[in-house]
Design goal:
single chain, 335 residues, two-stranded parallel sheet, 12 strands, 14% strand, globular
């Protein structure tokens, strides 16, 4: 289904460098996972910019392999699915892979690995076959786990089945023998937006007596807005120069305390940092005994208390930092 419009998108500023188009033509982007929360937001923003959008259904894949080599081989064997995707991508300048299973509390399964690790390889192979200029793959900053800071390096510390599947997807893209299509992985942070269940849960938590931060609450939070993520994805796709293999969604300059105040309309309680660390250590130990079933919930508490610093990267060095919108989104979530 194609969407076209001549109206500019005020929430997604024009990238610094846009591809030159023939008079009367519009750029064509194909989006996998267009019906999802982030995929649909990307499609809407592109359509408002006058981009022709192809909404491409993602195949439902299952992956038995647990390493990059096995998944690359599995993708190569999917001739029919690769041809179908290549036909759908034919003539597109950019492909966005916004498909996958966004289930932080899930246990490991072939279905999870298929959606988050095998599909990226298949999409990249199809993009190569179709002559696409750039594939933008949506990953998650969760791949770097409990590190003190997030960055754009290949260093990952996944801590759950979900984060391991996303890290494996990145590793597959890095290890495959690519063709002419440039592949850029965007590590999205904790994305919030209208209608998202996790945003509604955050608002309820922030308005409750459980809302709390470790220490002063001045630690940087990776909580971000869907508007800024979409803006960043568009900039990465349109950029005419080289883009690193991995780029990190820029920080929206909110502290852990500011996030809770915006979402809940009240100041969070301040807890001793040593107490918070003790609680988390015990919680993760119990969750490990239960097959990591509580890891996702514990990670959300950890982010609420301590946040996570982000290192400046490609966006900052090239002037591709979107306007911060996270406070606006969180304040709207409580109305």
């Amino acid at each position: 289904m194609n969407h076209t419009s001549s109206a500019p998108d005020s929430s997604v500023p024009s990238p610094n460098a846009s591809p030159e188009q023939a008079p009367g033509s519009s750029p064509v982007w194909a989006v996998l996972g267009a019906s999802g929360f982030i995929g649909s937001a990307i499609c809407s923003a592109l359509a408002e910019r006058g981009v022709t959008v192809r909404q491409v259904s993602a195949p439902r894949l299952s992956a038995e392999g647990t390493d990059a080599a096995a998944l690359i081989a599995a993708a190569a064997a999917l001739d029919g699915e690769r041809r179908r995707l290549a036909d759908a991508f034919n003539g597109a300048d950019v492909v966005v892979n916004a498909a996958g299973l966004a289930t932080p509390g899930a246990t490991d399964s072939p279905k999870l690995r298929g959606a988050n690790a095998l599909l990226p390889a298949l999409a990249a192979d199809a993009a190569d076959a179709a002559g696409v200029r750039r594939l933008v793959h949506l990953s998650s900053a969760a791949v770097q786990g409990h590190r003190p800071f997030l960055d754009e390096t290949g260093h990952v510390e996944p801590f759950s089945a979900y984060s391991r599947s996303k890290a494996l997807g990145e590793q597959v893209l890095s290890a495959r023998d690519g063709g002419s299509c440039s592949v850029a992985t965007v590590r999205a942070t904790s994305v919030q937006g209208p209608g998202r269940a996790t945003t509604a849960k955050l608002a309820r938590l922030a308005a409750s007596p459980l809302a709390s931060v470790a220490g002063s609450g001045s630690a940087p939070s990776p909580v971000s807005s869907v508007h800024s993520l979409v803006d960043f994805v568009v900039r990465v796709g349109f950029h005419q120069g080289p883009v690193p293999a991995v780029v990190l969604q820029p920080w929206e300059r909110a502290s852990v305390s500011a996030v809770l105040e915006a979402a809940g309309g009240r100041r969070p309680a301040r807890l001793p940092a040593w107490f918070c660390r003790t609680v988390l250590r015990g919680g993760y130990a119990l969750s490990s005994l239960a097959g990591e079933r509580l890891h996702g919930a514990l990670r959300r508490v950890e982010m609420m208390w301590f946040g996570q610093r982000q290192e400046p990267g490609w966006a900052e060095s090239t002037g591709n930092v979107p306007e911060p919108r996270v406070r606006e989104v969180l304040e709207a979530s409580r109305t």
